[in-house]
Fold this protein.
Amino acid sequence: MLPFLEGEFGNPSSIHHVGRRARAFLDDARDRVARVFACKPSEVIFTSGGTESNNLAVLGVARRFRDKGRHIITSAVEHHAVIHPCEYLSKKEGFELTVLPVDGAGRVSPDALRKALRPDTVLVSVMAANNEIGTVQPVAELGAICRERGVVFHTDAAQWLGKEPFVDIHQFNADLVSVCAHKFHGPKGAGALFIRSPLLPDPILFGGGHENELRAGTENLPVVAGMTSAIELFLRTPVFNQETLAPLRERLRTAVGAVPGVTIRSPRNECLSNTVSFSVKGCDSIALLAGLDLEGVCASSGSACSAGSLEPSHVLKAIGCAADEANSLVRLSLGRESTVEEVQSVCSVLSVVIKRARGGEL
């Protein structure tokens, strides 16, 4: 990223020689991402992150095909960057929204999707892996069902990429795939949306003709450069190494499960290797996160995008938890630098933090 922060400051849309150099760098980055994805360069749209990619996919496709039908489908455990655009379309633009239920592990049933599809369904959006409890969805099967019925399928793959095995972008059987760079050790503020040709969603940002006229705004070359490098380095060989993280995750699960009143919410099977989420009876997330922070442990109550929110986790509510349990979600996430010593440190303070949050009661 440094060359684009220090010297290569041209606008890729300018016709002078500095702008043309910037355009060459931008085109090269798109070509490199497309090689990893095994798609056409024109099918890669650079965005500001997962939220914008999801909004462009959901709002853009629904509006493009509104004359064909006004029924859209999503799941009860999606990131708010998908749920909220779907709800907006339902409340403000005359669409009908079907929200698919999930089982106790947070997984969508392919049969439920088949039953929910209608002749006027224009879009299905189901995430590849859940950001709060780590559940991996049968996304390729869901995508195949949509393709059989001629329905556009979008998946939010922000949590999947860099953690699960990656062959190419087509493995999801999706027409649109959202990418978020900082989820696989790339820079924040960088994302991409794969859009399978010849699909062209309606734009949601207007101004110039950037990004194949799908995303107005001067491209941010430094973060595009950083994301491109991260995609090349960390997707085909996932940066979150499963063999390394699995024993660390099991240590955390054992320690968490040993505390009275604590329930592990991350499923044991078909779950991201870096995620251990749990709820604590008689506590709320804010008290638990503050207590862990005092001990030097950085944890989250579900999505970091909702940090500080007092709303119960919609994911835990969807898997059948009562409101008080859904309000006590804690998510511990492992990364490429996580060590046995760090995990042991968390295990040693966990029961103390929970006891303190309960007012001295275990």
